[in-house]
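<goal> How does this chain fold?
<body> The protein record starts here
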Amino acid sequence: MNDTQTRERSPGIKLLFAGLIGLALMIPLMLVYALVYDRQDQSQTAQASINSGWGGPQVIAGPVVVVPFETTEVQDEVVDGKTVSRTVQVEKMLYLSPVDNRVSTKIAPQERRKSIYSSVLYEASVTGKASFALPEDLARFGVKREALLWDRAELRMGASDARGLTKGGSLVADGKALAVQPGKGPGATGGQGFFAFLPWTGEAPLKVDYAFGLRGSRSLSLVPRGGQTRWQVDSTWLNPSFSGAFLPDGRKIDDKGFGASYTVDKLALGQPPVATEDTGPPALDAEAGIDYAAPMASTAVTPASSEAISGQSRAVTVGLVEPVDLYSKVDRSVKYGFLFIGFTFLAFLLFDIVGGARVAAAEYLMTGAGLVLFFVLLLAFAEVIGFAWAYMTASAAIIGLLTAYSAAVLKSWKRARFIGALLVGLYALLYVLLNLEAWSLLIGSVLLFVALAGVMYTTRNIDWSNVSRRPVTAS
């Protein structure tokens, strides 16, 4: 064997070629990664289109009693270069939270599709009972009882995306139905919702019954306020998520749906029962990348928006999670792409160096291209037939293709069956990792340890310094 052939059979040269080709294949892997993000963005655009005529993620708040009152303030003005203080009479708002609020919500979910994309929509039926009482020590909050303008008192209920209020709502005070008007929702819903003028003077406790239907998508949040808030929510959706400032006291999830109950006390809210400023929209977790503030930000300015807003409110959220977030799973699977390429190239390299089967750089490249193509097939099929079936289809196609190709490259069906078995094991393991996210790091690290130990054991008796001098044999 001459020097050129010796260099071609050198383990270092072979390893260098395989490593360089593996690094070059990171470019198409990154392109696949970008493709996943592009398709996910298209999916979110399609979902937004589906939701546009229905309603977005909803935040509900209230009821709250709002009463104007007159007070005096000292204001400074500059007159002829001098600061002059004067006392003026101004009008402010008193926000009275319920002493007790019991809310019951039933969510009827449905999936709507546009082309190959789908979105989770729902219709919610909200009913509740609340009680109000004017504090006896109202003056300690800086408001005089005689300054309250009861003829302009309002009872307000909020829903963050008013497009979902398609079935109307009702407000009943002490058994008397009130005339409902649009707008003037609490600050927690950005002023969106409905209200009614309230015939109440604060002399006796007030009992309020309310009910309304609400359309929305993906999630429903409730902003508790006042003395004690109890919320019971039920749905036939099988995959809920519970998030927000408070978790449910009790929950039940079975094959018929889910139910959850919340109890939030006034001390946990850290808010006084009465205030001269309303609270603003809550900071909510963005389930599946959804911006909950978007519906409120896009609404027109309402009368409530000119009133004083102080800080953020707190909310509890129930999300309707899609059973399989295929883009998230495809995205995670692409991150394991280099592991697939590494294991397959390692097997080729051992057959090449130890077994004498000569594998050219172009054959490494085409094998790597097949492994990268798996992720493109997985994404394409998953959008149409679902992730599980897409995974089986794409992996079967690539395993069959590379097994047949390996038989020609390695000059042996026995070796090709080993490559096929290796790929079956890798794809099976990846599927397990994708479904056991919490254990993926542990399983992956153990796999790498076992693989390294296997290579060490297989090559333990090889004299690497003489490998390049062995005669080339066809097998």
Q: What stands out?
A: The CA atoms of residues 190 and 358 lie 70 Å apart. The chain has two domains: 3-42+326-469, 57-320. The radius of gyration is 33 Å.
